[in-house]
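Lay summary. Proteins are chains of building blocks that fold into shapes, and those shapes determine what they do. In this project we predict the shape from the chain. Here is one chain we studied, written as its sequence of building blocks.
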Amino acid sequence: MRATRHRTLAYVTTLMLTIVASGMDPAHAQESSGDSVSDLTGRIWELVQFQSSDGKTLIPIDKSRYQLVFQADGNIAVRVDCNRGRGTWKSAARNQLEFGPLALTKMGCPPAPLNQRIPQDWQYMRSYTMRGGHLFLALMADGGIYEFEPQASPTLENTYWKLIHLGNRPVTMASKQQEPHFALNSETRRVGGSGGCNRIMGGYELNGDSLTFKQMAGTMMACPEGMDTEKAFLQALSQATNWKITGQHLELYNAAGNTIASFEAVYTK
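And here is the predicted shape, written in a compact code that computers can read:
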């Protein structure tokens, strides 16, 4: 009984210290009841710190290497240092959260406590709250709290751009295929990505808000679904002349000034 009371007190103390450290007023702690799942989507969340119930704090050296992206369709994109992954999420009630299994790549990242901690804690994150624009994910059984903050507007280069519209038409991913996307590598000045069925690659020229894709090529697989979308995606890239980022979204325009494709930032590469 005494041990349970001690753990509860430690957890509450950790939560209150987190609230104070983020510049929030503890007197308004109950405002979390108004949090909406729509607050989770439409942005890239970067890890600020993890505070365990025993008072230990883990802070990433580079918060941009630890990211969450909640997608409105119930999927979630995750970055844990040099590894990236996919999973699902759902919220049955306000401030409740449940993650599905996390499929994470297995690259050999430099040793860091958070690299092991996050995958281990994944299934135990069961609630969330928003404070001062920050997202707090709490582990069950008073296990600790992960604090995230929204990433500033992404840059055109070195960002994974997921295709969401071709013209005014929404894009849906074909089953068992990779989502159409592209990323510009500022060091190599090369384009990489996927049309959904085939990998795409090429070069690009960037000058202010002018953008052109050069010598685009790709693998030549024939998939049973998604080929029309892939063809239209590649055609849009070949017609692009200008770009604009608003929040977490990118629009590409043709020479006539029409929007030919829209994208959503998923994570920073």
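What the prediction tells us: The chain has three helices and 19 strands.
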